[in-house]
Amino acid sequence: MTALKNDRFLRALLKQPVDVTPVWMMRQAGRYLPEYRASRAQAGDFMSLCKNPEFACEVTLQPLDRYPLDAAILFSDILTVPDAMGLGLYFETGEGPRFKKTVSTMADIEALPIPDPQKDLGYVMDAVSTIRRELNGRVPLIGFAGSPWTLATYMVEGGSSKDFRKSKAMLYDNPQAMHLLLDKLAQSVTAYLNGQILAGAQAVQIFDSWGGSLSSAAYQEFSLAYMRKIVSGLIREHDGRKVPVILFTKGGGLWLESIADAGADALGLDWTCDIGQARQRVGAKVSLQGNMDPTVLYANPTAIRQEVARILASYGSGTGHVFNLGHGITPEVDPANAGVFIEAVHELSAQYHQ
Questions:
Q1: How do 96-99 and 89-92 pair as beta strands?
Q2: Is the separation of the CB atoms in 234 and 194 below 8 Å?
Q3: Catalytic: which of 40, 66, 241, 310?
Q4: Is 40 an active-site residue?
Q5: Residue 165 belongs to some domain of the structure
Q6: CA–CA separation, 172 vs 176, rounded Å?
Q7: Is the pLDDT score of 92 beyond 90?
Q8: How far apart are the first and last CA of the chain?
Q9: Predicted confidence band at 211 (pLDDT cuts at 50, 70, 90)?
Q10: Is residue 31 flagged as an active site residue?
Q11: What residue ranges in the chain does DSSP mark as E strands?
Q12: Number of domains the chain is built from
């Protein structure tokens, strides 16, 4: 494989020295970019964009052509795994993801297959290898998947939910069924991420978007335990390099110490945590990724730079910090403001790496 021209993202995740703090954005290939909207219109719809490796590659590279980002992230969706389990993913305009089938009984769950990454999710593997080839060593490529708990909520609810009523009812009424579902998802996600690594992903992130909706005890038992299982089954070295693993639980600030013990290399933080306090709490065990509030990007350039400076100062000197937003960039952001943010991270962080 081609040598990396810019590896500061991987180096920071592994707590190795860097010249400036690396930066990328969750959902950096997305609707805020006019070029993305044009590609999506050409593809026809969101799933056609995901399932065509050339389109997926095109939109993955678009933000890199516009900004000096330190990583690319595979353009895909966390719900490709339940789709490959036969639930029939589709997207309603203005409604978000929906499934044609849901799971509600032990029999439903027992009938679910464990998808084969090459056969059932081959379009994702093809996208990873295509993107990796086209990147030609510019920056590392991040692969990703949803956490078992997050995927389970969509599979049980049939789509997005505000209160996770059906999922939590299953968790408390029929924990045996929920554990079977989560175990199958953990096996599926492990195989899926390992497939991405073998296809060329150089780091992987697990998105636990809805772990923060759980009580503390339920989080440990029904979310973190299964992420820990995935981490223990991942390929951690490939192509002669370590493959760092990032865990991101939105709303997980209460449980940072437990998440840091799960075996990953880095923790993603949402914007409700103070990154300096988080660093004190987890010590040298893991690197930290985050954690600017995405809505700061609606502000003026001076305010954006001030918030970048504040977060950098809070983290302090030394490596182990990957700058990111505390959640995905939103569609209404002015692309120029994203540029201000990225340039500010590089410019203002150099003093912390001398």
A1: antiparallel
A2: yes
A3: 40
A4: yes
A5: yes
A6: 9
A7: no
A8: 31
A9: very high
A10: yes
A11: 72-73, 89-92, 96-99, 141-146, 203-208, 237-238, 241-242, 245-249, 266-268, 287-292, 321-325
A12: 1
Q: Within a domain: residue 124?
A: yes
* CATH of residue 106: 3.20.20.210
Whole-number Cα distances in Å, 138 to 8, 98, 274, 351 = 11, 36, 32, 24
Which structural domain, as residue segments, surrounds residue 69?
29-286
With respect to residue 257, please indicate whether it lies within any of the assigned structural domains.
yes
Asked if the structure places residue 340 within a domain, the reply is: no
Q: Which of these is catalytic: 7, 8, 11, 27?
A: 27
- Cβ atoms < 10 Å from Cβ of 268: 26
Tell me the per-residue pLDDT of 192-203, one tens digit each, with 9 for 90 and over: 999 999 999 999
Segment 102-115, tens digit of pLDDT:
999 999 999 999 99
15: tokens are 């707590």
- Rounded to 5 degrees, φ, ψ at 60 are -60, -40
Structural tokens at position 292: 């600017």
Query: Is 228 annotated in the active site?
Result: no
pLDDT digits (tens, 9 = 90+) for 301-350: 999 999 999 999 999 999 999 999 999 999 999 999 999 999 999 999 99
Active site residue: 37, 66, 77, 116, which one? 77
